[in-house]
């Protein structure tokens, strides 16, 4: 016969899983609805963090560098580099202190990176469960910064 504590623990676990699934679904909706690179990066980081740790996170944009740093060690190299490059480009564009040519190049790289960021976030379960066979490691989704200077 089950004890009350065991039943309660099972109910709480199901509730936690349901909340995590609702949070993930909400973030995925926001991810598909936004065209803003900074917001796309933030949402992708939150989804990746949730999959990597099992904990849902609500974060502001200023938390992205910390999230990227934590995720970098858990992601396949190509995906981690893509995330870091997107973060650097978002910082460059938001800061606006570079030359117009550099800003244009950063914006172009971000426009090219958005589909990759979305794919990483959508496929985060696959990414963390079997990094070696992840479709994110294929050349079609890897992010390579343009050499425009």
List the helices and strands and how they pair.
Blueprint: H1 4-33, H2 37-53, H3 64-72, H4 77-95, H5 100-122, H6 124-129
Helix pairs in contact: 1-2, 2-3, 2-4, 2-5, 3-4, 4-5
Q: Please report which band the strand proportion falls in: under 5%, 5-15%, 15-25%, 25-35%, 35-45% or over 45%.
A: under 5%
Mean pLDDT: 80
Helix residue percentage: 55-70%
- Order of H and E elements: HHHHHH
Question: Structural class per helix/strand content?
Answer: mainly alpha
The end-to-end distance, rounded to whole angstroms, is 70 Å
Q: What does the overall shape look like? A: elongated
Number of strands: 0
Number of H/I helices: 6
Weakly predicted, low-confidence segments = 1-12, 132-149
As a whole number of angstroms, the C-alpha radius of gyration is: 18 Å
- What is the number of independent domains? 1
Largest sheet: none
List keywords for this structure.
6 helices, 149 residues, 0% strand, elongated, disordered N terminus, mainly alpha, disordered C terminus
Tell me what you see in this structure:
The radius of gyration is 18 Å and the shape is elongated. α2 packs across α3 (64-72), α3 (64-72) runs antiparallel to α4 and α4 crosses α5. The relative contact order is 0.13. It is 70% helix and 0% strand. The chain has one domain. The protein has helices spanning 4-33, 37-53, 64-72, 77-95, 100-122, 124-129. The chain is mostly helical and 149 residues long. The model is unreliable at 1-12 and 132-149 (pLDDT under 50). It contains 6 helices and no strands.
């Amino acid at each position: 016969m089950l004890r009350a504590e065991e039943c309660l623990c099972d109910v709480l676990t199901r509730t936690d899983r349901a909340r995590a699934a609702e949070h993930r679904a909400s973030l995925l909706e926001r991810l598909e609805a936004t065209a803003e690179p900074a917001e796309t990066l933030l949402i992708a980081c939150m989804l990746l963090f949730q999959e990597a740790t099992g904990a849902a996170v609500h974060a502001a944009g200023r938390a992205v560098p910390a999230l990227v740093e934590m995720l970098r060690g858990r992601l396949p190299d190509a995906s981690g580099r893509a995330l870091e490059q997107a973060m650097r480009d978002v910082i460059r564009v938001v800061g606006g202190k570079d030359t117009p040519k550099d800003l244009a190049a950063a914006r172009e790289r971000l426009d090219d990176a958005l589909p990759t960021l979305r794919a990483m976030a959508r496929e985060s379960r696959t990414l963390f469960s079997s990094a070696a066979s992840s479709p994110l490691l294929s050349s079609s989704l890897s992010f390579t910064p343009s050499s425009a200077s």
